[in-house]
């Protein structure tokens, strides 16, 4: 068991007075590059991280799933013999609720459970805490009902839960990597064909340094659907099924004819898909300076064209650029949905401590906010163990 799984098991015992039968867990993720491309049928390049959400559970002989969490006093109860709908007010319980609804809809009815959720994936920090919870719940219920879903079906079940129970019209990247992540490998995912291409990413001399800005701006939830709408609008104007089909040449012809904000969103997506393709080549060639440059360019595009960055994320990217390759930073960018949350830097492992200290000190001095920094290697996806 990982420490998170052990913790969930211990907390279950303390809460319910008996041992759990299963412990399911799923990782958070960082996206190395390929941001806001998943719902445009494009390419993404995430990896699972060594921070997990774990759910310890055991049958309780009732028609109810009861979930308690380490991070909240709110208890989520799910009545299995009533229609399952999201609570009117946003609540963490809606993620597992959405997963249970997906299983019931598929004709796979779980038994009643007592469950305890523990997580060390920071919540709302762009590391996919919600997909980690959904993915852990999915593999738990697969075990409970005794049916392993086809992986793509499981991914889509999580995505549907996020759409219908959390109101976020997200793509498939997060559940895909949280469910299926592999140790030592990054995932080049073609979101049109849903074909994974697993890339070895385990050079001991480089590391991904995750910098949590520890800020989250209100805009985060309202801007996501706005960008998604703009991307569909741009595809419609260009007469393509999705921005994956749009070329830079075709986009240039449209310049000036359409709304500038929407056009820039489209430019981000088209250039980002191309950067992601090149980043995969760089990873294959272990060309870290090249991967770093592509990450820098991605950040610039997210900041100026897609406009989902914020002062704090820009500051981390600036500080990282100031240290530069000579100081051991190959490149840096925001990761995930933006407007706060985390940035990542590709760093020389031997300089990790110095780099982390420099970023922390400069960020703290400029913002007055203490950032959280940690490194992670690509980790394993969702799993269940018999406790
Ligand atoms: C969120 C969504 C993903 C993806 C990213 C941006 O994490 O859940 O589907 O769109 O934002 O790349």
Describe the secondary-structure layout:
Elements: H1 3-16, E1 22-31, E2 43-44, E3 46-59, E4 64-69, E5 72-79, H2 94-105, E6 113-119, H3 129-145, H4 151-166, H5 173-180, E7 185-190, E8 195-200, E9 206-216, H6 219-237, H7 248-254, H8 260-284, H9 288-304, H10 311-323, E10 329-334, E11 340-348, H11 352-367, E12 372-376, E13 383-386
Parallel strand pairs: 4-6
Antiparallel strand pairs: 1-3, 1-13, 2-7, 3-6, 4-5, 7-8, 9-11, 9-12, 10-11
The chain binds alpha-D-galactopyranose.
Quote the beta fraction: 15-25%
Strand order across the largest sheet:
5-4-6-3-1-13
Structural Rg = 21 Å
Give the class from helix and strand content and strand pairing.
alpha+beta
Bound molecules: alpha-D-galactopyranose
What is the tally of helical segments?
11
Question: What sequence of helices (H) and strands (E) makes up the elements?
Answer: HEEEEEHEHHHEEEHHHHHEEHEE
Quote the distance from N terminus to C terminus.
9 Å
Mean pLDDT value: 97
The largest sheet is: 6 strands, mixed
- Low-confidence spans: none
Number of strands: 13
The percent of residues in helical segments reads 40-55%
Outline type:
globular
Describe this structure in words.
With 387 residues, the protein is an alpha+beta fold. The protein is 42% helix and 24% strand. The protein has helices at 3-16, 94-105, 129-145, 151-166, 173-180, 219-237, 248-254, 260-284, 288-304, 311-323, 352-367; strands at residues 22-31, 43-44, 46-59, 64-69, 72-79, 113-119, 185-190, 195-200, 206-216, 329-334, 340-348, 372-376, 383-386. The strands form three sheets. It has a six-stranded mixed beta sheet with strand order 5-4-6-3-1-13. The chain has a four-stranded antiparallel beta sheet with strand order 10-11-9-12. Strands 2-7-8 form a three-stranded antiparallel beta sheet, with helices on one face. Helix 2 (94-105) runs parallel beside helix 3 and helix 3 (129-145) packs across helix 4. The longest helix has 25 residues, at 260-284. The chain is globular, with a radius of gyration of 21 Å. The relative contact order is 0.17. The mean pLDDT is 97. Bound molecules: alpha-D-galactopyranose. Alpha-D-galactopyranose binds at residues 31, 35-36, 38-39, 170-171, 173-174, 336-337.
């Amino acid at each position: 068991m990982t420490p998170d799984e052990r913790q969930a098991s211990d907390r279950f015992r303390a809460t319910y007075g008996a041992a759990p039968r299963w412990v399911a867990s799923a990782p958070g993720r960082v996206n190395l590059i390929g941001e806001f491309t998943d719902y445009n049928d494009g390419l993404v390049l995430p990896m699972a991280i060594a921070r997990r959400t774990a759910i310890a559970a055991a049958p309780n002989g009732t028609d109810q799933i009861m979930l308690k969490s380490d991070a909240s006093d709110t208890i989520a109860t799910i009545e299995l013999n009533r229609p399952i709908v999201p609570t009117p007010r946003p609540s963490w319980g809606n993620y597992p609720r959405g997963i249970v609804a997906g299983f019931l809809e598929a004709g796979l009815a779980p038994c009643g459970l007592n469950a305890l959720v523990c997580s060390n994936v920071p919540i709302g920090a762009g590391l996919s805490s919600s997909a980690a919870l959904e993915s852990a719940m999915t593999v738990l219920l697969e075990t409970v009902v005794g049916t392993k879903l086809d992986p793509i079906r499981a991914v889509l079940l999580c995505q549907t839960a996020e759409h219908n129970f959390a109101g976020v019209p997200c793509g498939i990247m997060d559940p895909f990597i949280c469910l299926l992540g592999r140790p030592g490998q990054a995932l080049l995912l073609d979101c049109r064909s849903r074909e994974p291409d697993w890339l070895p990413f385990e050079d001991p001399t480089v590391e991904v340094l995750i910098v949590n800005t520890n800020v989250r701006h209100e805009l985060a939830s309202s801007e996501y659907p706005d960008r998604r709408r703009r991307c569909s609008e741009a595809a419609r104007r260009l007469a393509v099924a999705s921005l994956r089909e749009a070329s830079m040449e075709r986009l240039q012809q449209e310049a000036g004819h359409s709304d500038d904000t929407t056009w820039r969103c489209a430019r981000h997506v088209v250039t980002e898909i191309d950067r992601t393709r090149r980043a995969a080549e760089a990873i294959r060639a272990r060309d870290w300076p090249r991967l770093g440059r592509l990450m820098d360019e991605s950040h610039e595009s997210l900041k100026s064209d897609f406009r989902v960055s914020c002062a704090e994320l820009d500051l981390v990217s600036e500080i990282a650029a100031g240290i530069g390759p000579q100081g051991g930073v190959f490149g840096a960018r925001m990761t995930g949905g933006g407007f706060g949350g985390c940035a990542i830097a590709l760093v020389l492992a031997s300089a990790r401590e110095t780099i982390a200290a420099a970023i922390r000190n400069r960020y703290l001095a400029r913002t007055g906010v203490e950032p959280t920094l940690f490194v992670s290697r690509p980790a394993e996806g969702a799993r269940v163990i018999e406790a």
